[in-house]
Amino acid sequence: MAGYDDRDGFIWMDGELVDWRAANVHILTHALHYASSVFEGERCYNGKIFKSVEHSERLRKSGELLDMELPYSVAEIEAAKEATLKANNLTDAYVRAIAWRGAGEDMGVASKKNPIRMAVACWTWGNYYGDAKFKGAKLDIAKWKRPSPETIPHAAKAAGLYMICTMSKHAAEAKGCSDAMMFDYRGYVAEATGANIFFVKDGEVHTPKPDAFLNGITRQTVLGMLRDKGVTVHERHIEPAELEGFQQCWLTGTAAEVTPVGQIGDYNFEVGALTREIATDYEQLVRR
């Protein structure tokens, strides 16, 4: 496919649809220099964005956490996403809504005089991890750790928080891996670079407590599915030494959906029955 800057179609920007190639910002846009940007990744299935309102609500909340109140309501964000999908004639797509501080009177760390801008783009996108969704992804262990919530707004889906994720994933891909698992600042298991993580041991599920990383919408959905099935779930701090004792593992995220993990560093996992069941059930849920 062509690069993301050179495609046919339309992108919604600041209240109107513009030609894809004309959806540009000035080089002195504040977000480019100081990471003042928040975003959402969403998937549309059969013409309906899964958990769309929850994503729009979180976008606004992320903006508030970065001291940049979005000039659009949840209803207006919903309408923008619908208009973008319709303009591009897509019913199954990935949807990216993003808000940022634009160029304006300020060009420094402080930027209260600069406008808050917003855009929505959408495109067709297959499995985030390719065929790993069926055979199990291979993960590296990142050298970077998720920071303390005293140092970052960890509940915000903010662009700046992904810097170490990008570096970690690049290092993983150089080793032939699909992604990397990250520890948090205390040394507990945290998440992958763009997805939450679950483990299975003796029929029970263990997943890291989201007190230093984003509590994903897909993560919350899968937790609800597990509890509806009567599966015992432990949300807790997980020590690195425990990885050896887990039998199954999977990742969750809007892009990742539910992706089995076959290996993390030197630890191996089976793509077991519960993993396959949750992946299948999630696929059915989002397409209802």
From TrEMBL:
- Pfam (any one): Aminotran_4
Instruction: State the top-level EC class.
Output: transferase
Catalytic activity of the protein:
L-isoleucine + 2-oxoglutarate = (S)-3-methyl-2-oxopentanoate + L-glutamate; L-valine + 2-oxoglutarate = 3-methyl-2-oxobutanoate + L-glutamate; L-leucine + 2-oxoglutarate = 4-methyl-2-oxopentanoate + L-glutamate
Q: What is its EC number?
A: 2.6.1.42
Pathway listed for it is: Amino-acid biosynthesis; L-isoleucine biosynthesis; L-isoleucine from 2-oxobutanoate: step 4/4; Amino-acid biosynthesis; L-valine biosynthesis; L-valine from pyruvate: step 4/4; Amino-acid biosynthesis; L-leucine biosynthesis; L-leucine from 3-methyl-2-oxobutanoate: step 4/4
Query: What are this entry's molecular-function GO terms?
Result: branched-chain-amino-acid transaminase activity
| SUPFAM superfamilies to which the protein is assigned, alphabetical | D-aminoacid aminotransferase-like PLP-dependent enzymes
Q: Supply the alphabetized keyword list.
A: Amino-acid biosynthesis, Aminotransferase, Branched-chain amino acid biosynthesis, Pyridoxal phosphate, Transferase
Instruction: Respond yes or no to whether keyword Cell inner membrane is given for this record.
Output: no
Task: Decide whether keyword Repeat is in the record.
Answer: no
Q: Which GO terms describe its biological process?
A: amino acid biosynthetic process; branched-chain amino acid biosynthetic process
Which sequence ranges form a coiled-coil region, renumbered to this chain? none
InterPro entries reported in the protein's UniProt record = Aminotrans_IV, Aminotrans_IV_CS, Aminotransferase-like, B_amino_transI, BCAT-like_C, BCAT-like_N, Class-IV_PLP-Dep_Aminotrnsfr
| Known role | Acts on leucine, isoleucine and valine.
- Cross-referenced PANTHER family, in alphabetical order? AMINO-ACID AMINOTRANSFERASE (PTHR42743), AMINODEOXYCHORISMATE LYASE (PTHR42743:SF11)
Query: Which family is this sequence assigned to?
Result: Belongs to the class-IV pyridoxal-phosphate-dependent aminotransferase family.
Official protein name in the record? Branched-chain-amino-acid aminotransferase
Q: Which organism is it from?
A: Fertoeibacter niger
